[in-house]
Amino acid sequence: VNGKVLHINRKPKTPGEFGLPKQEVERAQITAEGIDGDYNDFRATKKDNHPDMALLLMPIETIRELNEEGWPAKVGDLGENIVTEGILLNAFEPEMKFDIGGAQIQISYECDPCYKLHSLPYIGEERGPEFIKTMMGRRGWYARVLEPGDIAVGDTFSLAEAA
């Protein structure tokens, strides 16, 4: 199970905003809390910055599927920190460990879509329930950080060797 890092996204804490959409960066430092400089409102306010929610991963293949279905989702819109290419959403499983650049992460659990996606300009309150239904089982995977390190766009995203 191997792929590559296609995009890295983060958004600093911004008063009155939830952390969507995230902005793309070429490289970032992964700390125990996630991408350095990133803010996730749900994680911070409801989950006490739980380490199992440090990163949100999303395959580009899922974003492309949404586009084909008529949803104009762009990279960063869904709150994802790392967009992969070459590993489909259903290939991820809890406890899988991946090496990315100088970091190692472990898949924790699937991310459920939330009402904050309504804040996207092409969704809104009217289409929100339909989009939430569309996103069930497709919002990506949360991961915890096992080894902090630097990552960059283009890095290999590969299943870690069993010890």
Automatic annotation (TrEMBL):
Signal peptide: none annotated. Residues 22-160 form the MOSC domain. PROSITE patterns: MOSC (PS51340). One of its GO terms (molecular function) is pyridoxal phosphate binding. It holds the Pfam family MOSC. This is MOSC domain-containing protein. It comes from marine metagenome. The lineage of its organism: unclassified sequences, metagenomes, ecological metagenomes.
